[in-house]
Amino acid sequence: MILYNLGMPVNSVSPVTVFAGKGGVGKTTCAAAAALHSAWQGRKTLAISTDATPSLAHIFDEPPHPGPVQVESNLYFQEIGIREARQLWEDRFGRDVYQVFSSFIDLPYADFTEFMSSVLPGLAEEFMVDYIRELCQKGEYDAVVWDTAPLGQTLALLETPSLLGSHLRLAPRIYTHLRAGADTKESILAIIRRWESLSAVDMEFLRSGVDFNIVVIAEALAVNQLEGILAEMDRYGFRVSRLIINNLARDDGSGFLHERSAQQRSYLEMINQRYKGRKITAVPMLPHEIKGLDRIREIETLLFG
Ligand SMILES: Nc1ncnc2c1ncn2[C@@H]1O[C@H](COP(=O)(O)OP(=O)(O)O)[C@@H](O)[C@H]1O
Ligand SMILES: [Mg+2]
Q: Does residue 198 contact residue 229 with C-beta atoms inside 8 Å?
């Protein structure tokens, strides 16, 4: 079976398109438009958000619901909040990791999960990556559009198990002989290795199954940060297929917008210069709030022509 990743044929069951970038730049708007585009091309499409403050329900003009919620015949959305993700993580990995830690420190399980999520604030995101990977493997949807993928600190956190593992390997004689608990035959190192390999699988999914779109606005800070984001994506081996420069002011001759758009144009030119080989899409700022399918369609046209 050949599936299509927003127009690109791919030979896997995990065609995921991601919209990443700083808060407020238009990730959710672009994700909703891309999902609509995909659905209209006849693919059963899920728009999924892992944002702590999700807004897919708002933009689709639907009541908030953990979902998946059907918006149109081919279009669904789902919002995984930080609480749901943490719960899912705890159910699936929490006990294992607790076994590791409880062999060093005497801590009740509830305090442990509280402790873990305070020292590793990106832990829930690790689960989210895993959740989306599994969702794609099930192949229930022909396309998945992911609003807000982890970047920066969170990606580094995905590698935490491996750091933990290499630290513990420094004292193999002690740790390999520790058992994680009376009711398990697994050594601590084996549990860590399992956790490590899961993280490796999730990172590999981000590398090979996910198509990244970076959304930015035409401002000095954003343009400077773009360099760092792209370098980071490269370092992890992630595929960035498109840069979206959103919210460009239209020069209507008024003094205010004339100046604003001239300034943005200079940054847009800078981006076009710097990233010549890349696909760059400029999206104007619309005069109205983007909410509901008719408005999303306007963005869809701007993004996909
Ligand atoms: N091209 C645009 N024209 C007009 N308003 C926009 C545009 N892109 C985004 N917005 C508005 O900007 C706000 C933030 O967009 P959103 O997609 O929620 O950003 P993010 O998900 O990156 O935080 C929303 O109110 C949205 O309607
Ligand atoms: Mg958003």
A: no
CB 55 less than 6 A from any atom of ligand 1? yes
Report which of 67, 88, 87 is spatially closest to residue 78, judged by C-alpha positions. Answer: 67
Distance CA 227, CA 303 (A): 22
User: 28 CB less than 6 Å from ligand 1?
Assistant: yes
Give the other-Cβ count within 10 Å of 2's Cβ.
7
Ligand nearest to the CA of 286: 1
Domains in the chain, please, with CATH?
3-86+117-304 (3.40.50.300)
pLDDT in tens, 255-289: 888 899 999 999 999 999 999 999 999 999 999 99
Q: How far apart are CA 242 and CA 197, in angstroms?
A: 30
The percentage of the chain sitting over the pLDDT mark of 70, rounded to a whole number, equals 73
Pocket of ligand 1 contains residue 36 by CB under 6 Å: no
**pTM of the predicted protein model:** 0.85
Phi then psi dihedrals of residue 232, to 5 deg: -65, -45
